[in-house]
Amino acid sequence: ILTKVYGVSPLSLDEVYSQYCQYGERLAPHIRETATILEEALNRGELVLLEGAQGALLDPDFGTYPYTTSSSPLSGGGCLGAGLSPTRINRILGVFKAYCTRVGAGPLPTELKDETGNLIREQGHEYGTTTGRPRRCGWFDAVAARLSNRINGFTGVAITRLDVLDILPRLKICVGYKLDGETIDYFPGSVTALERCQPVCEELPGWQTSTSHIRQYEQLPLEARQYVARLEELIPCPINLISVGAKREQTIFKTSVL
Asked: pTM for the complete prediction?
């Protein structure tokens, strides 16, 4: 392909082999039997944190295939990746933005293709880290969140970027879908069915005041607490922490994660 399609010189096998041997030498000191290290740490009573990448709806089995990734980003995938038994995991924290985003193609039932979507995108700096592509933004999808909760088994939830919604006078939460004239409360297994879904939403008042300086849950505006409480009911799972900014200290611990 390189030579016939792109017209470039062929790669030298010896040069590539030599280069990758050098990579191997640099990486060698960092290669260990990580599964054994983790098992021993747990046996000593230490805390081990596994962080998953991507999101539940990119799972090739339960996500919006073919708009998915190649491996499982679910909590069970953490066991496979780390080499730990599922019984070793006793806390699973689900992480949701206070609204929905998606990068690239694929169904997003709550997508906002209007000024509200643009406001959320600009306020949340929702652009791809490497490509700079604008992310698609929409209202929080409780139907998708329930699926994520079911297949991951969350013991708690973190809601991030609540402060992005500070500017909006009214908020919506998707609580169901309208599919071919029927109202459903589940996430369709068929991506073609999901593409035909229209969101059924509840509307809540916004708070229209800055939350970025708040560190105690009780200090949040009443409307913000009502929004969080409704998410907690719909997911349904206890919300442990809420972020109101990009800095580490801009975190509200509603209840203990552990």
From this structure: 0.89
